Amino acid sequence: MQLALFLIFGALAVAGALNLLFQRHPINSALSLVVVMMSLAVLYWSLGAEFLAAAQVIVYSGAIMVLFVFVIMLLNAGEEERTSGSRAAYNVGIPGAVAIFCVLAFVFLSEGSALGTANVGGRLANGLDNIAEVSSVLFTKLLLPFEVTSILILVAIVGAVVLARKEQ
Amino acid sequence: MVPIAYYLVLAAVLFSIGIGAFLIKRNVITIFISIELMLNAVNLTFVAFAHRWHQIGGQIFVFFVMVVAAAEAAVGLAIIIAIFRTRRTLNVDEIDLMNS
């Protein structure tokens, strides 16, 4: 059953990513990325990361992609035109990406037996819930980095406001 | 029962498509979207390894990657708006001030 889940949503993720690559209009690319992120949320859930599956839906496809769609509509971005730069990128980009994929896939598949298998609903350590485990580590051992991220977000908000402000 | 290697190969596929889109696309917003695709592919690898080694650290790392990606998206899109306001274009071939 987990194999069927993996195949369906893995195929959906790859189809969304390819659609992102082939669509010429930015809004179509952004919406294909939402498809990829939702399928990845299902895959996270099947790997026992329930908190991350929820965060993926809420933060990534909920907040970040809405920001992208807002900016695309604000700038009224049309279809991109083909230029000489894109021809050069085709000649270098496609073989380079294929080569990186071949290296990664070779390493992963040749070490496949050492990596083992995934079981749906598997618990990690101690038999705790996923969310209890994440929060106990996040709010005890990693409390300082967690608080520092709030400062990072604050700086990002201020920076975004300053950069996007109209020049006087 | 799915081999962990399948998840890692899926992440490699998504990452390679992200690299291809990053190089081929000429619209600065689409290039930014393909960076997000690569971040997502790496997140899938982290979650798969966290499942394999029964460690929560991988999932915590993905949480921090999400936080940084949110901050990056806000600042990056603000920069894109600023570029569009001054150059009136989103095509990366025409944004070549540092090249000429």
Determine the structural class of chain B based on helices, strands and strand pairing: mainly alpha
Would you identify the CATH H-level superfamily of the largest domain in chain A?
A: NADH-ubiquinone/plastoquinone oxidoreductase chain 6, subunit NuoJ
Radius of gyration of chain A: 20 Å
Strand content of chain B: under 5%
Q: Output the helix-strand order of chain B.
A: EHHH
Which CATH top level class of the largest domain in chain A fits?
Answer: Mainly Alpha
Would you give the CATH topology of chain B? Helix Hairpins
Radius of gyration of chain B, rounded?
A: 17 Å
Number of strands of chain B: 1
Uncertain segments of chain A of ≥5 residues (pLDDT<50)? none
Layout: helices, strands, pairs:
The complex is a heterodimer of chains A (168) and B (100).
Chain A: H1 2-22, H2 26-46, H3 50-75, H4 84-110, H5 112-115, E1 117-118, H6 130-141, H7 143-164
Chain B: E1 2-3, H1 4-24, H2 28-53, H3 57-87
Helix pairs in contact in B: 1-2, 2-3
